[in-house]
Amino acid sequence: MNEIKIAVLGSEGVGKSALNVRFLTRRFIGEYASSSECIYRKRVSVDGRQVNLELYDPCSQACEGKSTLNDQIHWADGFIVVYDISNRSSFFTAKAIVHLISELHLGTAKRDADSLIFLVGNKQDLGHMRQVQREEGQCVAAEFHCQFYELSAAEHYHEVALIFSKMVRNTSLGSKAKERRRRPSGSKSMAKLINNVFGKRRKSV
Ligand SMILES: Nc1nc2c(ncn2[C@@H]2O[C@H](COP(=O)(O)OP(=O)(O)O)[C@@H](O)[C@H]2O)c(=O)[nH]1
Ligand SMILES: [Mg+2]
């Protein structure tokens, strides 16, 4: 497999774009365009082998031609499901998404979940506003046999990079020949990403 597709999913405002941008540019910017869904492309090296990584960052708001969660799940090989530790409802959404992925994507192959679904509690720097305990995240991860991480896109570049690298490696190792179904629309180049990040929406951090 020389193409890897990873979807970063979760409710609006949990930091999906922040995580993608942090991984791709090493920067935490603060505010990101969220009016369209997009796919970021990057060539990465896995164990000395070049692979084409596609990272799907969904549009948080209603937008034209928006793909459904089912489409997104069928499209991707690996999933980073994000919630905000200071927002309990985002945790429930993340749990529902993990459940759906287990049902739709992995079917009965539960053992795959461990390497192909990561549950991530973001905004760890907001510990004083915490609504979801670390143990609750661990519990859901155990229930669905997925890996669990807590971090802060704002403060932890290395943890963010580690999670993405692990997922890239796991998906590239998984030799599932999965039939590609509908692909989320609105692919963006790195140039577009840079515009989003450094363009007019930029806020100082
Ligand atoms: N304090 C804190 N804020 C964050 C973190 N990650 C993202 N944010 C903020 O949360 C808001 C939503 O982030 P965004 O990436 O647009 O969320 P998305 O809708 O899931 O793509 C923005 O104001 C970000 O600056 C984090 O780790 N810590
Ligand atoms: Mg976003």
Automatic annotation (TrEMBL):
Q: Which UniProt keywords apply?
A: GTP-binding, Hydrolase, Nucleotide-binding
Q: Which reaction does it catalyse?
A: GTP + H2O = GDP + phosphate + H(+)
Q: What does the record give as EC number?
A: 3.6.5.2
A GO molecular-function annotation: GTP binding
Under InterPro entries, the record lists: P-loop_NTPase, Ras-related_GTPase, Small_GTPase
Annotated Pfam families: Ras
Q: What class of enzyme is it?
A: hydrolase
PANTHER family membership: RAS-LIKE FAMILY MEMBER 11 (PTHR45704)
Q: Give the protein family.
A: Belongs to the small GTPase superfamily. Ras family.
Descriptive protein name: small monomeric GTPase
Q: Please name the source species.
A: Collichthys lucidus (Big head croaker)
